[in-house]
Design goal:
Layout (H helix, E strand, L loop, with lengths): L4 H12 L11 E6 L2 E5 L3 E10 L6 E3 L1 E7 L5 E7 L8 E3 L16 E7 L6 E3 L4 E10 L3 E6 L4 E2 L3 E2 L1 E5 L2 E2 L1 E4 L2 E6 L17 H11 L6 H7 L12 H11 L1
Parallel strand pairs: 1-16, 2-17
Antiparallel strand pairs: 1-3, 3-10, 4-9, 5-8, 5-14, 6-10, 7-8, 11-17, 12-13, 14-15
Helix pairs in contact: 2-3
Length: 247
């Protein structure tokens, strides 16, 4: 869902200024959850953006937010947003017409996300964290770790901000997330017993191969998670990482 950013925010802010409740400005931190994850190349990466009150005993009001996203376009491709959490935003997405042109394409590794609260009934950041939305990326290529960040600024006019009331930016720390993308040597890696299901039976089967009890060539290939054409102790950690992702 896209709207002209300049027109949308200007009109909405004028109206919202009359409807926002009187609350003291406070700091709201942004966090990515999970902070680290492992995905298969070609799969979908889901990362939730959370607004977290820095006061352990007080919720904090959110009128609107502009969030700049930055990622490695060689490793990830932005697909969109999904699951906007428990709060029903008036708008949640990537507006067109942003002055620095971040949303002209999602192929260059940056974008501007905007969320607008309902008039007179904005969102509240809790100490536990409010799920704002879930961003979805496509995992393009194998990498030991690529980082998704939230820059303070992008271009001349675009800034990351959380509006607690019109003109009052209450954003605090801006979190980051690390994504590891793995490319198995074979489509069967991890599925040691060949039933096309990743489960505890594959772990038991892998132990048999690593102990030399099972020498079936297909099973050996399925255990060779580090791609060195051998099934041995060096495959243990990459196998565990893969199973943590798939089980």
């Amino acid at each position: 869902m896209q709207k002209d950013h300049a027109v949308m925010t200007a009109a909405w802010t004028l109206i919202a200024a009359l409807a926002v409740p009187a609350v003291a400005p406070a700091t709201i931190n942004l966090e990515w959850r999970p902070e680290t994850q492992i995905v298969l190349a070609g799969g979908i990466v889901d990362i939730g953006l959370y607004a977290v009150s820095d006061d352990p005993e007080m919720d904090q009001y959110i009128l609107a937010m502009d969030i700049i996203l930055n990622w490695d376009s060689d490793s990830l491709e932005l697909v969109g947003v999904d699951n906007n959490g428990p709060y029903d935003w008036l708008f949640s997405g990537f507006p067109v017409g942003d002055v620095d042109g971040l949303n002209e394409t999602f192929l260059d590794g940056d974008a501007l996300y905007t969320a607008l609260g309902q008039l007179g009934a904005g969102a509240w950041a809790t100490p536990e964290g409010l799920l704002v939305t879930t961003f979805q990326f496509s995992a393009l290529a194998e990498t030991p770790g690529t980082t998704l960040t939230i820059p303070e600024d992008a271009g001349s006019y675009t800034h990351t901000a959380i509006w607690g009331s019109p003109g009052v930016d209450v954003h605090g720390t801006l979190g980051s997330a690390m994504v590891t993308i793995v490319q198995p040597c074979s489509p069967t890696v991890g599925d040691v017993n060949g039933d096309k299901v990743y489960d505890m039976a594959d772990i038991a089967a892998a132990v048999q191969v690593l102990l030399g009890i099972d020498t079936d060539p297909d099973h050996v290939i399925a255990v060779d998670a580090n791609c060195d054409e051998a099934a041995d102790g060096l495959d243990l950690q990459p196998l565990v990482d893969l199973w943590l992702l798939l089980l």
